[in-house]
Design goal:
Chain A is an alpha/beta fold. In chain A, 66% of the residues lie in helices and 10% in strands. Chain A contains 14 helices and 5 strands. A 4-stranded mixed sheet of chain A has the order 2-1-3-4, with helices on both faces. In chain A, helix 3 (58-69) links the parallel strand 1 (47-53) and strand 2 (73-78). In chain A, helix 2 (21-36) packs antiparallel against helix 7. The longest helix of chain A has 32 residues, at 177-208. Chain A is elongated. Chain A starts with a helix and ends with a helix. By secondary structure, chain B is an alpha/beta fold. Chain B contains 15 helices and 5 strands. Chain B has a 4-stranded mixed sheet. In chain B, strand 1, helix 3 and strand 2 form a beta-alpha-beta unit. The radius of gyration of chain B is 28 Å and the shape is elongated. The chains are: A alpha/beta, B alpha/beta. Strand 4 of chain A pairs parallel with strand 5 of chain B, so a sheet runs across the interface.
Chain lengths: 373, 368
C-alpha cells in the first residue's frame, strides 16, 4: 500500500511540475465547455433569403412582406433576374430563393390556384428540410389570409374536420439546446483528457527509457499500474466536479437526479477509459502511435455516441458497434440523471454494462502489460 | 541546397522506417471514412414511441396503423395510464408518447375536432422537434383524406426545388466534414511532435549545430508529411466518389490544389505547435484537445454556423477547417470554379503564411 502511495505521489509531482501541461489539463477543457456549448445547435435561424418578384403587385409584395416579418428569414435580397439569384446561391450568399411568376396576382384571381417556385440550397439536407417547412408554413398562413380577404359571397363555407395536435416537450419545454449539449460536451472532455493522458503515459516511459528502470525495482506490476492511473482518475473526477458547477452556474442546466449517482457512475466509467488507455500504451512503441490510436477511437466514440446524431437512425450493424462505445453510455446516463431525474434502478442496466466493460478492459490491459514488457 | 536535400531524405527515411506508424496513419482514415460515411446521418428513422390510447376506436386504430407503417416510427409499447409516461421516459425506452383523448372518433364526427397530445422527451430538442413535426405531417395527410370533398378557395402552392442535393442525402454533408477533420487532425498531429520529439530525445542539439537555416529545417520537416497527407487525401476522395457516390461537379484539379493548400496549412499549424511546446506530450495534447472539438463544432461540419451566436461566428473565422469545408462543398457539390471561392482560398493561404512565418520566428536556435 505504501509503495502505491509513493508512486502516486511521484506521478502527481510529475504532472504538477510540467508547467506547459497544467493549463491544457485544467483550463482548456473548461474553456471549451463554456464556449463550445453555445455552438452546438440544430436550430435553423437567420436563413439567408432572396426573392425574384416578376409581378410587382400588391399581392406579391404582401407575400414578400410575410417573409420579411418572420423571425427565421434574414437579409431580404431582391434579385432582378433568376441568373443573378442562382449565382448568389453558388457563392453561398443566399440559401432560399422565392420566385414569384409574372401575372401572379391576375392568375391567382382567375384560377384560384397557383404554383410558386422555391429554390433551397440542400447541401445540408436536414437544414433544407426545416427551411422547406418554414416556407410552407408562411405560405399557408398567407393562403388563409387570402381566403378571408377574397372570399366571394357565393362561396359556401363547409366546416372541415380537424385533428388538433398538442405538442408537449417534456424535460426541456423551451427546447434549449444548451441544456442538452452541456452534459454531453462535459462527458467528451472528461473522456478525452483521461484517455489521452493515460494512453500516452506509460508509452512515454517506454520511449524515454525509464520504464526499464522501474522494471528492475521491486514494485509489483499491479502496484505500478494502480499508482500510474490513479492520478488520472482523480483529474477526471475533478474535471467533472468543476464542469458540473459551471453547468449549473453559467448554463443553468437542471440537475434533477442524484449527484451521488452521477459520481458513482463516473467513477466506474473512468476506469473503462483508463483501461483502454493502458491497453493502447501496451501495444505501441511511441507516444505518436499511442496518440494516433487514441485519436482514432475518440473520433469514432464521439461521432457514434448519439451526442450529435441519433443512434436509432444508424444502420443495424452500426448500432451494434455503438454497444461497445463507452461514451454512448456516459452521455445517456448523464442526460438521464441530470435532465430527467432517472434513479438508480433506471440506470442499473447501463451501470452494470459499464462495470463489466471496466473489468474486461482492465483485465486485458493488465494481462497484455505482463506479456509485452 | 545539397545539404537541404540530404536533410529531406533523412526525414523521409525516418518516417518510412516506422512501418507501424505508417500503417496507423493510412489505415485509420480509411476505416473512419467508411464507418462514418455509412453510419452517420442526421435524418431521423425508426424512433421508438409509445401509445396511450384512451379512445380505442376505429379512427385511432387507423391513425396508429399509419404511424406504425411510416419508416420514421416503431411502436415499442402501449401505455395504459398517464402516470406511466414519466417512468417510460426515465428508463429511456421511448422518445415520444402519443396520447389520444377519450372519445376521439365521436368528437371528430360530432364536433369536427379531436385532440391528440404528442408528448416528447425533449432532453434531445432536435429529435423531439422532428418527431413532433413528423407526427403532425402524418396526421395532416390523414386529415386531408377526411376533408377531400371540401374545396378550399385560393391556394398558393410552393413548388420546392432542392438544389445541389435533391435527395437530401446526409452523406453529402458528412463526407466533406469527415474528410476535413481527418486531414486537419492527422496533419497537425504529425508535425506537432516533429520538433518536440527531437527536443525530447536529445537530437535537437545536433540539428542546431548543423549549418541548416531555421526555415530549411522547418520546410525539411514538413515536406515528407505533405507527401503522406496528399496520399491520404487522394485515398479519401477516391473512397468518397466510388463508395459514397459523392459527385465532383467542379474541377478535380482545383480540388487537388485546394486540398494541398489545406494540408499545408494544417501541417504548418502543427509545426507552430511543435516550436512552442516543450514535450511531445504537450504538443499532442495541444493538437488533440485544442483542435478536435473546435474543428468538429465550429467548422460547420455538423452544426450550421449561421445559427450560432455572433461571438462564436467570429471565432469560427479563425478555424481553417471552416473555409476548407466551404471550398470542398463548393467544388464537389455545386461545381463552382475559383471565381466563386477565391476569397476562402485567399484566407487559407493567408493563414498558412502566417503559421509558417510565426513558426520560423518562434523556432529557437538555442536550447534552454
Amino acid at each position: 500500500m505504501k509503495t502505491i502511495l509513493y508512486i502516486i505521489q511521484k506521478e502527481f509531482k510529475q504532472i504538477f511540475r510540467n508547467k506547459g501541461m497544467l493549463p491544457i489539463i485544467f483550463v482548456l477543457p473548461l474553456l471549451q465547455l463554456v464556449i463550445l456549448s453555445n455552438a452546438a445547435t440544430f436550430e435553423v435561424k437567420h436563413i439567408k433569403f432572396g426573392y425574384i418578384d416578376n409581378d410587382h403587385t400588391s399581392t406579391s409584395r404582401a407575400l414578400v412582406e410575410k417573409f420579411n416579418a418572420s423571425t427565421y428569414f434574414d437579409v431580404l435580397t431582391d434579385f432582378p433576374s433568376e441568373a443573378l439569384a442562382s449565382s448568389a446561391m453558388l457563392k453561398g450568399e443566399v440559401d432560399v430563393v422565392l420566385e414569384i411568376p409574372h401575372y401572379f396576382e391576375r392568375d391567382l384571381q382567375k384560377e384560384k390556384y397557383i404554383d410558386l417556385g422555391v429554390t433551397i440550397n440542400a447541401i445540408d439536407g436536414a437544414a433544407a428540410g426545416v427551411e422547406n417547412v418554414y416556407v410552407t408554413q408562411i405560405i399557408q398562413r398567407f393562403n388563409q389570409h387570402l381566403k378571408v380577404d377574397l372570399l366571394q359571397p357565393s362561396d359556401k363555407l363547409v366546416q372541415p374536420t380537424n385533428i388538433d395536435t398538442i405538442p408537449l416537450f417534456w424535460y426541456n419545454e423551451t427546447l434549449n439546446y444548451k441544456t442538452f449539449m452541456v452534459p454531453g460536451i462535459l462527458v467528451l472532455l472528461v473522456s478525452m483528457i483521461t484517455l489521452f493522458l493515460s494512453g500516452m503515459n506509460i508509452v512515454r516511459e517506454k520511449e524515454i527509457g525509464t520504464l526499464e528502470q522501474i522494471n528492475v525495482t521491486p514494485i509489483k506490476k499491479s502496484q505500478f499500474i494502480i499508482g500510474k492511473l490513479f492520478p488520472f482518475w482523480v483529474i477526471g473526477m475533478g474535471l467533472l466536479t468543476v464542469g458540473l458547477i459551471l453547468a449549473r452556474l453559467i448554463f443553468n442546466v437542471p440537475m434533477l437526479g442524484s449527484l451521488v449517482l452521477m459520481y458513482l457512475y463516473t467513477s466506474i466509467y473512468i476506469l473503462v477509459i483508463l483501461g483502454i488507455g493502458l491497453f493502447i500504451s501496451n501495444f505501441t512503441d511511441t507516444q505518436q502511435q499511442a496518440m494516433f490510436i487514441a485519436w482514432f477511437f475518440v473520433v469514432i466514440f464521439i461521432l457514434m455516441s448519439g451526442l450529435f446524431t441519433p443512434i436509432e437512425s444508424m444502420p443495424r450493424w452500426a448500432q451494434i458497434v455503438t454497444e461497445f462505445n463507452p461514451i454512448k453510455y456516459y452521455v445517456e446516463v448523464m442526460r438521464m440523471v441530470m435532465l430527467k431525474g432517472s434513479g438508480f434502478m433506471d440506470i442499473l442496466p447501463l451501470l452494470l454494462k459499464t462495470l463489466l466493460y471496466a473489468l474486461i478492459m482492465n483485465g486485458l490491459a493488465v494481462w497484455s502489460y505482463k506479456k509485452t514488457t | 541546397m545539397k545539404r537541404f536535400i540530404g536533410f529531406i531524405k533523412k526525414e523521409f527515411y525516418h518516417i518510412f522506417r516506422d512501418k507501424r506508424s505508417l500503417f496507423i496513419l493510412f489505415g485509420m482514415p480509411i476505416a473512419q471514412i467508411l464507418l462514418f460515411g455509412f453510419a452517420i446521418t442526421n435524418e431521423i428513422n425508426n424512433v421508438d414511441i409509445a401509445i396511450l390510447d384512451h379512445s380505442k376506436d376505429a379512427t385511432t386504430e387507423e391513425i396508429i396503423n399509419k404511424i406504425s407503417a411510416s419508416k420514421y416510427f416503431t411502436i415499442k409499447q402501449m401505455v395504459t395510464r398517464e402516470a406511466d409516461i414519466a417512468s417510460v421516459f426515465k428508463k429511456g425506452q421511448v422518445k415520444a408518447v402519443l396520447n389520444f383523448e377519450k372519445d376521439f372518433s365521436k368528437n371528430l364526427i360530432k364536433e369536427h375536432k379531436a385532440t391528440v397530445q404528442i408528448i416528447t422527451d425533449a432532453t434531445d430538442p432536435n429529435t423531439a422537434n422532428t418527431i413532433s413535426n413528423y407526427v403532425n405531417a402524418i396526421l395532416q395527410k390523414y386529415q386531408k383524406e377526411l376533408n377531400k370533398d371540401i374545396t378550399i378557395a385560393y391556394q398558393i402552392v410552393p413548388e420546392t426545388r432542392m438544389v445541389y442535393n435533391p435527395e437530401l442525402k446526409s452523406v453529402y454533408m458528412f463526407v466533406p466534414g469527415v474528410m476535413t477533420i481527418i486531414l486537419m487532425l492527422v496533419s497537425a498531429m504529425m508535425t506537432s511532435i516533429s520538433i518536440t520529439r527531437e527536443k525530447e530525445l536529445g537530437t535537437m542539439e545536433i540539428l542546431l549545430v548543423s549549418p541548416l537555416k531555421p526555415f530549411q529545417v522547418i520546410i525539411g520537416k514538413v515536406f515528407p508529411y505533405i507527401f503522406l497527407s496528399i496520399i491520404n487525401a487522394v485515398v479519401i476522395v477516391i473512397l468518397s466518389i466510388f463508395i459514397f457516390n459523392m459527385p465532383v461537379q467542379g474541377s478535380l484539379f482545383l480540388l487537388a490544389l485546394e486540398s494541398i493548400l489545406f494540408i499545408i496549412s494544417a501541417l504548418a499549424l502543427g509545426i507552430l505547435i511543435s516550436t512552442i511546446s516543450e514535450s511531445q506530450q504537450t504538443a499532442m495534447m495541444i493538437s488533440l484537445m485544442g483542435l478536435m472539438l473546435p474543428v468538429i463544432l465550429l467548422s460547420g461540419f455538423i452544426f450550421p454556423i449561421s445559427s450560432m451566436p455572433m461571438p462564436l461566428q467570429i471565432i469560427s473565422h479563425i478555424i481553417p477547417a471552416k473555409w476548407f469545408i466551404i471550398i470542398i462543398k463548393g467544388i464537389m457539390l455545386k461545381g463552382v470554379g475559383l471565381q466563386f471561392i477565391w476569397k476562402e482560398t485567399l484566407i487559407l493561404l493567408g493563414m498558412t503564411v502566417f503559421f509558417i512565418a510565426l513558426s520560423v520566428k518562434k523556432y529557437k536556435i538555442r536550447l534552454e
